[in-house]
Amino acid sequence: MADTALETATAAPPSRYAGTRVARVEDTRLLTGNGTFVDDVVRPGMLHACFVRSPFARAKVNSIDTSAALALPGVIAVFTAADLNPDVREAWHAVAGKDMPDTPRPPLAEDEVKFVGDPVALLIAENRYLAEDAIELVDVDYEPLPAIADFTKAQTSDVLVHAEYANNQAGGMGGAPPDEETFSSAAHVAKAHIYQQSYVPVPIETRGMVVEWQAAPGELTVWASTQTPHELRAFTARLLGLSAQKVRVIMRDTGGGFGQKVVPMREDMCILLASRKVPGPLKWIEDRRENLMTAGQARHVDGDVRMAFDDEGNILAADIDFVQDIGAYPTPYPVLTTAAIGMFFPGPYRVPKCSFNYQTVFSNTAGLAAYRGPWQYETLSREILLDIGARQMGLDPVELRRRNILRGDEMPYFNPNGMPYDHVAPADTFEQAVKILDHEGFRKEQREALEQGRYIGLGFSAYIEPTGAATGNLGSEGCTIRMEPTGKINVYVNGGSTGNSIETTVVQLTADALGADIEDVSTIQGDTAVTPYGAGTQGSRSGPMTAGAVNEAGTILRDRLAALAASMLSVEPSEIELANSKAVVRGDDTKSVTFADLAYRAHYEPGMVPPGTSATLEATARFVSPPTAMIHWANATHACTCEVDVVTGQVTLTRYIVSEDVGPMINPNIVEGQIAGGTVQGIGGALLENQAYDDDGNPLSSTFVDYLLPTAADVPTIEHGHVEIPGPGVGGYKGCGEGGAIGSPPAVINAINDALAPLGVTITSLPATPATIVAAIEAAQNNENRGQ
């Protein structure tokens, strides 16, 4: 029987593993110190790279004298822009596409440096210590120039970051114009000016790669800390003008990416370009100071938001007008991606009319890069505004949200910007969070605390987000499943594990797809030489897309196994069930054959396989997300309680609750880990983290002494609630990688503002540091005194 006739012959076995808390398969390796990160890679004759970086935010480069550095024993080469930049063939990223207009991105600075840390030269030495010392010997003649570091003033500045971009505007977009008549006639209008500071992913493993060029075969091998090994391979081939089959990218363990490692940045380009000019493999590992100064900024938005309500508190219209800082060299094309802030601004609410307008502007600072939920400002600004509106109308913020949040029976629902919500019920996660919290109980506690002179508060945040990211190159994912001669199974996917544990979830899905025992399944990921193309870890796509790919390949292989077993048991394939790593005749457990027996027959006794039955126990398939399932809408509600010391400004978080709908969970442990990790990052953004610059563009937070991160002491136990509304794709799975980081900042800020409401304080500029809070309290007291 031909394979095509068998494509639906064998029903999928019932799930044994998906939905269960299977222990992560990678943990043993990682917890025992046996992981392999880029800095663990050692190649014979390996050389080390270090960058000469600009100490000025903006300066003309008059000359670069490399002679003293080259005279130092052990220094192999020093490359400048003249050496590397002309070798660039193509430098576009698939996430934007080759035809999308992009902003400048030279590998090394040409003529003018544009931010502190801008790479000016690349030094190659026999070891890292020597390379670090030798960069001090590179004499760069800088002519300092005025810089513009404050993006809020960039559009009116005389300084141009890039001469070809007037007013420092990279571009912008506007939706429908505001309905001013609605705003002018509404019973209530809430307004706010909300500033979100720049803060960054700070992966525990910084950026890095090892590149080995073999001239004889013309082949390049790259070991990289990346979220997208196949895209790095394609980018490398384009950059160097090589055939893609001559490039191999190997990704082993990656200590976090959070968006920062989706696309190759300028330093990556330099290392790739230099690799063919040096006599050995080349390693570059970014240090923490470089990471904080140059690996990109995130967030950093300044805007005005407003919302109109009727007498009952129903939303009539919403408007957002904002500017986003994109630094000197954003990656990649930032104008289009920033549009998501405006498009998603209505959020999970019933908003009849919504308008947005924005501008992206250059500044003499590090370039904008992706970070978990790059559009997060829409949730921050909307949720803070809702609380402001609730207090203005004398409503509890819970009641205002309850009146406006979308219900499941309203789906499908198009938000006023055309976003097609479906397979969600934001009201369900909201009500679950309210119930877990015991809202009425907290309000009673709050009143009692205030009588005692204590200021405690409650903040909510609700959002809806697109996951699955199935547009452009993100719209498909490949998978190969191979049964080895022993009957054991390997599943090959693009991967790999950057903390989201695709290693474990793919094993669970494959075991279920084939009816295998989970201990019989292993996975191979992150090596472009053996894995099929995939777009990698970005856009909360890994769960839905790998589930689809495993299903496609698993269906093919399942039918081949059933056909082979049927020939050995003398029954029809439709009578075969696969379970417990065996093929069993339905209704007769005495007739069975193990996967090991099937594999032995296929590999060692192919002559006994009947004509028309495949002996190929391997299947490769590509899942393409259909138009009806391009977006998997997830949603959540975050609830946070806190206490604020009004003397010191110290904020203590007392409870944190997340109710999230990501559809059925492949592994609840992993889902909750993803939510918790993102939530903590958002808490850091609300209270602590700040990638700050002075007026001259000098970074003020380039070490962990100045760039403060949350620790276990800053975060209460995160309580999880789950609502499971299946999405439109395979298994109903939705993504969960970005939500925690989206919902937590406004929940924290709203809790602080709720605590300080009796003092007339509203924080709308982040981060809410103790100094910021104390200053706001003092300002409110001064205003009150002046009013008297």
Automatic annotation (TrEMBL):
It comes from the Bacteria. Keywords: Molybdenum, Oxidoreductase. The keyword Iron does not apply. GO terms for molecular function: iron ion binding; oxidoreductase activity. The keyword Oxidoreductase applies. This is Xanthine dehydrogenase. It comes from Mycolicibacterium confluentis.
